[in-house]
Amino acid sequence: MTPEEQARLKIDELLTDAGWIIQDYKQINLSASLGIAVREYSLKSGFADYLLMINRKAAGVIEAKKVGMPLSGVETQSDKYSFRLPPTLNCHRKPLPFLYETTGVETYFTDNRDPDFCSRKVFSFHKPETLQEWLGQSDTLRRRLQLLTEIDTEDLRECQKEAIAGLFNSLKQNRPKALIQMATGVGKTYTAVSFIYWLIKIAGAKRVLFLVDRKNLGEQTQKEFQQYVTPDDGRKFTELYNVQLLTSNTIDPVNKVCMTTIQRLYSMLRGEAEFEAENEEASQFDAEQENQQPKDVVYNSKIPIETFDFIITDECHRSVYNVWRQVLEYFDAFIIGLTATPSLQTFGFFNQNLVMEYPHERAVADGVNVGYEVYRIRTQITEQGSTVQSGFYVDTRNRQTRAVRWQQLDEELSYAGRQLDRSVVAIDQIRTVIRTFKQRLFTEIFPDRTEVPKTLIFAKDDSHAEDIVRIVREEFGKGNEFCKKITYRTTGEKTEHLIASFRNSFNPRIAVTVDIISTGTDIKPPATVYL
């Protein structure tokens, strides 16, 4: 086959997957389906590679090219075809509104009803039902975005108003991606719930996806929606619009907001019927550091590319680039990132479109956040490492089972500080840090306190956290309720209940975590220890 014929096979496959019936020009049967793609349709001059018929009326054209052909120069051709229509052709409107240029590998779409319309890259074709729905609307989404106004309500901080104004300005300019950088603790989630409300009410967003890094952050975000009182109506957000935290791989079509993790969303796109909730407990940030291959995505007709109009990625530095990028770019949606600590990769993914920059220093200056102090506890082996002489007995621990066996060293063992609590565990080093923390807690760190403050200890992994919990209880002379481990491997009590206890109850005073309680988890400022 010629390259053109190979491209047509792939294009036919994409159209069929999206629900289109493909027919040849000489064998048209407009009663066969709601959406029909007619090959080689004769126009006033030339032929349209595909003419898209919606409910027996022409609605768009597809210009097909061989794989590798740059498509920006093809836009003029498809645009001309939308004008060169036979006078007898029954059309929804002239010129035809929906224009596609495709090679079967790369596809661009234009809705010429948009203000200053511009082609955008899409993963596949839209379903005929979607185009029919759009035809029935008086304005397009991008035209409705021009109606977004400055939000000036008393319940918003100035930094939140600034973030929303920057985002709305970006959306009016039809920028596909926008990044909001706001320091931890200034109310990023509340800001997001606020602008999502206006995107639904004013811009008529059909559905919004709110992606989180871990399940407990999704539960926290759901509470934000439930508690949000709409400024103009006075009712709660969830009294006006349906909000769903996905616990299964099914999206309820009545929902306006769906919240889930990137890993569950990937499972859904793969067509998996179920997804274990425990897979949503751990952050995907650490997994990305293990050089995983990017997740390949294929079209899923049950979750078409037009499912969401907007995608919000919370703490997007953890989930957007490298491994999970294709999951986000599957959808024909605006992507909005929320983060306190953007990386260079984050800036790159969001096309350097930083619509709000509100770092911690500015938040402290504005009185929104309080400053922090760093109290360093250094040990010799964390700084310099150490050496165990040959002939000594050391315990060797199995990573998975934690089974221990004693082994005599045949040669000396040297290790660097960075190996601690990873390939080498030095229990005495952990004990030294915890004991020093206890001894200086009420004299140097918190001289005005008499009770152990709420303290959060970050461990390197679950096994490290286990060691820390045991040592904390022993050094402080306290029981199980005083210090608890809150990681994705904690059993017997739900993670959200443990977090709620740490936030609201007297005990536990000290929590040890890896990443369950991390950036984005709403807990009043505790003392924080990194081990």
Outline the secondary-structure elements:
Elements: H1 3-17, E1 21-24, E2 35-42, E3 47-54, E4 57-64, H2 75-81, E5 98-102, E6 107-111, E7 120-122, H3 128-135, H4 141-144, H5 158-172, E8 177-182, H6 188-201, E9 208-212, H7 215-227, H8 237-240, E10 243-245, E11 257-261, H9 262-269, H10 285-288, E12 310-314, H11 325-329, E13 334-339, H12 344-349, E14 354-358, H13 360-365, H14 380-384, E15 386-388, E16 393-397, E17 404-408, E18 413-415, H15 427-445, E19 455-458, H16 462-476, E20 483-485, H17 495-504, E21 510-513, E22 527-530
Parallel strand pairs: 1-2, 4-5, 8-13, 8-14, 9-11, 9-12, 10-11, 12-13, 19-21, 19-22, 20-21
Antiparallel strand pairs: 2-3, 3-4, 5-6, 6-7, 15-18, 16-17
Helix pairs in contact: 5-6, 15-16
